[in-house]
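To: structure subgroup
Subject: Chain for Friday's discussion

All,

I'm putting the inputs and outputs inline so they're searchable in the archive.
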Amino acid sequence: MLYLFVNSGWSYFYFIGGLSIIWCFVFVNVGSIFCGLYFLGFYFDFLFFYFFLLVFVIMLFIWFGFGGDGSYNVVLLMLSCFFSLCSFCVFNPVWFWACYELAILFVFVLLYFDSPYSDRYLAGWYLLLYFVFCGIPLLILFFYFSLNQSCFNFFFWSFSDFDGLLILVFLLFCSKIPLPPFHSWLPVVHGEASSLTSICLSGYVMKLGLLGVVRFCESLLGGYFLYIYISFSLFFSCAVLIACSEEVDYKRWIAGLSVAHIVVCMSCLLNFSVVWGVKESLLFGVGHGFSAAYFFLLVYYFELLGGTRHVSDTSSLLGVGWVNLWLTLFGFFFVCSMPPTVNFFVEVWLIGLHCVLGNFGFVCCLLVYLFFSAICPLFLLGTAYCRRLGGSDGGVVYSVVYGFLIFSFMFILLLL
């Protein structure tokens, strides 16, 4: 059951006060990229404060929303959030790896014990292979860099002689985000995980890979290799979005959509010489985490309301009341980056910046990707609405005419 903000009258005060304090730190720190504060063996910089906001809000939701159950899954997810926060502010590579993997490990345990689905063991094997074959090589590389540099503080490392190994580190972190073509395991895991696990997995666990890219692959950002990889990922993401349009399971659908959208974070890093490139990437990551978490919560609400997460049953759920209709509408607008969401403004900034820099070939790739990333959720939304408009007393009847009109209207909006 959901006990969100009903346990205590002080919950609202704690929530608003905590968010205000976090944003004060973010705006105070927004003027510096490479400056931070060393305190009690931790390093607090702009990256910590951006991702702290995301994880802290998810922690509050888990605690006040599901803490009344007193179950072990809440404890495990709180531990996962805690180790995620630790990975944001440590500067020792071994401790970073330990906190990084522990944050994923607790989610992996929940995949087995909290999921009600029979195929969770197959999904668990996917996540275990991802954990072993990406985590162990990363630890070995961290030890090699530390011993070679005679320093266990990665802020003092120099990667000038390790370009080949650094590309391997970059690919390992890309597999943890995951970016194409390392994404195939994620929809399977989301499809078999519980909704609460999916909220955490897509809300902040995916952002840990972005954290590693910014921390360790600084010298690759803005380089020729990254341009080639991101251009490939944009076209690959278009194929993922087309495949998502045929998906009938909402959780697999939003998982594929999350994989396709996260590539915008990496596209912002192409302009590392521009100070705001890294910050816009992190800002998009925070917005991506909130939108994905909201939609997974919406799917969980659909399951409680109608006992299903099948796409074709959305029209029946929308017919229950106007509240459900507006909640669904906001959810679709969040995931397709409609204004006034923060992701929309980051995408506009990214297109404008590449136009100013004269990268018109990349702008064309980006525009094609953004068109498909917007049309995929809007098409599904139009399908749900046309089923609702085409309903009758005998049941829900699919209306091709309504579907064509709504799809055409949204197509014209995208062209504008």
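Points worth raising on Friday:
The chain has a mean pLDDT of 76.
The beta strands are 37-39, 42-44, 391-392, 395-396.

D.
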